[in-house]
Design brief:
Blueprint (H helix, E strand, L loop, with lengths): L6 H12 L1 H16 L3 H25 L6 H8 L2 H36 L4 E2 L2 E2 L5 H21 L1 H29 L17 H15 L15 H29 L2 H6 L4 H9 L7 H30 L18 H17 L6 H30 L3 H4 L1 H31 L11 H25 L21
Antiparallel strand pairs: 1-2
Helix pairs in contact: 1-7, 1-9, 1-12, 2-8, 2-12, 3-8, 3-9, 3-14, 3-16, 4-5, 4-14, 5-6, 5-12, 5-13, 5-14, 5-17, 6-12, 6-13, 7-9, 7-12, 8-14, 8-16, 11-12, 12-13, 14-16, 14-17, 16-17
Length: 482
């Protein structure tokens, strides 16, 4: 695959994958229902372990850039089974994200039509909380995003840059205005993590907030396609820091404008409601347009790293050769991109059993948050093992790439494990309901369980050399240059 990205394109890919506008628009209300008026506190608190783990990601990428990223790094440093599991749950988590973001995108389009006074199409009444209607519209956007990704990474990155400029301008404008024009009293308690109601609320809030930051690492899956591996690291760190600032600003602004019951009650339409409280039409539609752009961009930014992760797994023989087929002209993993899109569409159709968009978001975010905590932690441990020699040779550097990632891993494993246990203990039977603890726990359990089965198939049926140490690094730079 050609090296076509610089630091700007890398940052655009990482920022689009994180999808700040979508996370703010649909996630703040969900988090407020858990932590109350402590949105800025939970976003700052969750940023610390993610930033610590990002140090491990960056160093690994600078030493061994690879389309498989954590799948290859964990497999080499810890164990091939854990490496395969890391890649597998990352891919499945992203596919689940694409499935529900397809619905979110459709919901944003319907809200945008409503703002333009279009409430019926062909005699059908449109509802932004109808999973069926939103999914059907979102699938069209997903297919279009996949076709752009097949055309080339440079085109996708350029498109995302323009979308990001618009999104951030709207977010900064509305949130900055809301921070000063809001009628709810400002309080420094919003930034106090010790004011969060309970440890359970803290754990669930942390997982939800980590989910909001999730995606910055997608830039490392294109490590083989950037001009300099350090550009991917710089792009990831810049995007992650910008995300944190936007989340804290938006959390404070939303709480200045909306009472907590209104923030919680509007769920997936939170950004639309926020915009309508601050401005009249047509200006009030700008946050909604930004949300639509963000959701569409995040779909495209999700297709890109997922297809490349499966390209790396196919290249290693842990998955079939179909994932390694490149477009004859654009030299992108076209077959994998289209297959992943088809799987996401299939999963989106299965999600129709959950009747409302808000319930679908709640179930998906909790499930993905747990598996994200797991594979972030495994990658952090891999970095600590890979660079443990720095504890002797460079104690200061070891704080960034050994000690900090380990502390971040322990934190995420603790909150993710506690949340998984609380889901198990919260119910005594299974229901196909987003509020049922066993149902919420089923998704991450299926992800991990299917990963172990797929690893066994790759090890003993495909006889992949990945499991026997027969895979050579795609690129390796001397540690001293990292």
């Amino acid at each position: 695959m050609p090296r076509s990205l610089g630091v700007g394109g890398a940052m655009a890919l990482a920022a689009s994958s994180t999808a700040a506008t979508s996370s703010i628009g649909i996630g703040l209300g969900l988090m407020a229902g858990v932590v109350g008026l402590h949105l800025p506190a939970i976003m700052l608190l969750a940023f610390l372990p993610v930033l610590a783990i990002a140090g491990g990601y960056g160093r690994l990428n600078r030493v061994a850039p690879d389309a498989g990223s954590s799948y290859r790094w964990v497999g080499a440093a810890l164990n091939p089974w854990l490496g395969f599991l890391t890649g597998w749950v990352n891919i499945l988590g992203t596919v689940v994200f694409m499935a529900y973001t397809t619905t979110v995108t459709g919901s944003a389009v319907i809200q945008l039509l409503a703002a333009a006074t279009v409430h019926r199409v062909a005699g059908l009444s449109l509802s932004p909380d109808s999973t069926l209607q939103c999914t059907c519209i979102g699938m069209v956007v997903l297919i279009a995003s996949a076709l752009v990704a097949v055309r080339g990474l440079d085109l996708a990155a350029r498109l995302q840059k323009y979308l990001l400029v618009f999104e951030y301008a709207v977010l900064l404008g509305f949130c900055g205005y809301g921070l000063f024009a809001g009628t709810q009293p400002f309080s420094l308690d919003w930034f106090d993590p010790f004011g969060i109601p309970s440890f359970h609320a803290l754990a669930q809030g942390m997982v939800l907030a980590v989910f909001c930051y999730w995606g910055f690492e997608s830039v490392f899956s294109v490590g083989e396609e950037v001009h300099d591996p350090r550009d991917a690291s710089r792009g990831g760190f810049i995007a992650l820091t910008v995300m944190m600032l936007l989340f804290v600003l938006a959390g404070a602004a939303f709480q200045r404008v909306l009472p907590v019951d209104e923030l919680v009650g509007n769920g997936a339409q939170g950004l639309t409601y926020f915009g309508n409280r601050l401005a009249h039409q047509p200006l009030a539609a700008l946050p909604l347009i930004a949300l639509t752009f963000s959701a569409a961009a995040s779909l495209q930014a999700s297709v890109v790293p997922t297809a490349r992760g499966m390209f790396a797994m196919g290249r290693d023989g842990t998955l079939g050769p179909v994932w390694t087929r490149l477009h004859p002209r654009h030299q992108t993993p076209a077959a994998g991109t289209l297959l992943i899109t088809a799987v996401a569409i299939g999963l989106a159709l299965l999600s129709l059993v959950i009747p409302t968009v808000s319930s679908l978001i709640s179930a998906a975010v909790n499930a993905i948050g747990i598996v994200v905590a797991l594979y972030y932690a495994l990658t952090a441990v891999a970095a600590a093992v890979r660079f443990r020699h720095l504890l002797r040779t460079s104690p200061v550097e070891s704080l960034r790439v050994v000690v900090a990632p380990l502390l971040g891993a322990v934190t995420l494993l603790a909150v993710g494990g506690y949340l998984a246990w609380s889901f198990y203990a919260s119910a005594d039977h299974f229901e196909l309901n987003a509020d049922n603890g066993w149902f919420e726990l089923l998704v991450p359990v299926l992800m991990v369980g299917s990963g172990l089965l797929a690893a066994a198939w790759a090890r003993w049926h495909r006889r992949s050399p990945y499991f026997t140490g027969g895979i050579e690094p795609v690129a390796e730079a001397p540690v001293g240059t990292a």
